Amino acid sequence: MSHFYAMIPNSARKTIPTARGHKRTGIETVGASYSGAVRVALWHDEREGIDKFEVAMTPWMDEGDYKVLARGTVGDASMVELPIINNGSNYSLTKG
Q1: Which of 66, 70, 81, 63 lies closest to 41, judged by CA?
Q2: So where are the chain's domains?
Q3: Quick check: 59 and 65 in contact, CB under 8 A?
Q4: Is the dihedral of CA 36, 37, 38, 41 positive or negative?
Q5: What are 6-58's pLDDT values in tens digits?
Q6: Rounded to whole angstroms, how far apart are CA atoms 8 and 16?
């Protein structure tokens, strides 16, 4: 049985494309334009027994920057890490 699901609810297609992922594979989606892309990845942390995620800007066709926008535990807003403004790639735990 699949552990993760991904879908594209809005696109030029008439049907909604979906994908499945398992605890061992995780799942990743990318939305892109000519200016860059945004990647969303989900995976299961076996050691902690929880599902985690990362949202990042990423280059696409050699355009755009790379920057992690958020990381955290799926379904738990109190465990979301966001970059500290004007402090590079450091992160701060934001409590709900």
Answers
A1: 70
A2: 4-10+29-94
A3: yes
A4: negative
A5: 999 999 999 999 999 999 999 999 999 999 999 999 999 999 999 999 999 99
A6: 6
8: Cα within 13 Å, side-chain hemisphere:
12
pTM for the structure as a whole: 0.81
Q: What is the DSSP letter of 95?
A: P
Beta-carbon contacts of 50 under 8 Å, excluding residues fewer than 6 positions away, are 44, 73, 74
Quickly tell me which residue has 């299961």 as its tokens: 44
For 53-83, write each residue's pLDDT tens digit: 999 999 999 999 999 989 999 999 888 888 6
Question: Distances from the Cα of 17 to the Cαs of 3, 34, 41, in angstroms?
Answer: 17, 22, 17
Take residue 55 and report the two structure tokens written for it. 């949202």
